[in-house]
Amino acid sequence: MSVITPVESVQTMDVTQPVDLAQQALTTTQLAGASDLSIWNMIANATLVVQCVMGALLLMSLISWSIIFFKIFQINFGRRKAIQERALFQNATNLADGVQILREQSGSALYPIAKKGLAEFKRLEQSVIHPNLKFRVAGDNLRRVLEQGVSDSLSGMARSLPFLATCANAAPFIGLFGTVWGIMNSFHAIGQMKTAALAAVAPGISEALVATAIGLGVAIPATIAYNFFHGMLSTVQTEMECFASEFLNRAQLELPWMDKRSE
User: Fold this and answer.
1) With the CA atoms of 124, 125, 126 and 129 taken in that order, what torsion angle do they form, in degrees rounded to the nearest 10?
2) Where are the domains of the chain?
3) Who's near 189: CB < 8 A, 6+ residues apart?
4) Can you tell me the distance from the alpha carbon of 59 to that of 53, in angstroms, rounded to the nearest whole number?
5) What is the pLDDT of residues 134-168, one digit of tens each?
6) CA torsion 81→83→88→90, rounded to 10°?
7) Would you say 88 and 114 are in contact if contact means Cβ atoms under 8 Å apart?
């Protein structure tokens, strides 16, 4: 039976105690690092370039959401007004009454088109052209004017949609650039510390990946909204084109000088 002397006991404690303290310190450091891995802390601790990328993406997100909320109201309002006003125009007794009804509508979607058409007819009516030639010219000219009116109205509703398309296409790549830059800095830090410990690498990589996450967070809503608004605009375009055809048909039948086309 061996007996442990006090000297041996002291030596054993001296060897094991620093190891235990080092492990506790490492564990405490890892827990502290894990507690700091929140989104805001990762953004705050990221490099300047990555922070600039995140700031640009957040600005793009703010602008795109502003456009989305505005376009939901604008395009949906224009679609409902176009459907309602087309029905009112169909029920009008004549062309003049139909145009007057559209003029009285608040925020009319179809009156700008009808206004362009009437302006063109008045110009043709005052022109010195043989009635037969005027009849042929009027149809072509009015059709082009109405098509231009439809195009102008749709262009107004589609304004700012290209920005959504830009966000949808560019945001993931901008975020990826921030991620690549952050990972490059993380590997550079590994080379400086001469260690490949996960605890030393994980924070930098996590901060870098936040940029990609933000980029996807900008791109996904922008893509969905862009496609949704294009579908709504297709409905508005159909209503406006049908109205333009009905306007042209009524104008050819009702304008007084059209009765002289056979002279």
Assistant:
1) 70
2) 38-260
3) 200, 201, 204
4) 10
5) 666 667 888 899 999 999 999 989 999 999 999 99
6) 150
7) no
Which residue ranges of the chain lie beneath pLDDT 50? 1, 3, 6-35, 259-263
Residue range 56-88, pLDDT digits in tens: 999 999 999 999 999 999 999 999 999 999 999
DSSP 8-state assignment for residue 93: S
Cα separations (Å) of 138 from 124, 127, 145? Answer: 7, 11, 10
Contact indicator for 138, 20 with CB cutoff of 8 Å: no
Q: How far is CA 84 from CA 76, 136, 240, in A?
A: 12, 32, 12
The two three-digit tokens of residue 187, written as one number: 């590997």
Write down the residue that tokens 């939901």 correspond to.
Answer: 72
CA distance 160 to 151: 16
The owner of tokens 């901060």 is 207
Q: Where are the alpha helices (DSSP H) in the chain?
A: 6-35, 39-45, 48-91, 95-104, 111-126, 131-158, 161-193, 198-254
Q: Alpha-carbon distance 202 to 232, whole Å?
A: 45
Task: Tell me what pLDDT residue 133 has.
Answer: 63
In one letter, which amino acid is 143?
A: R
State the residue for tokens 């996450």.
213
How far, in Å, CA of 186 to CA of 192, rounded? 10
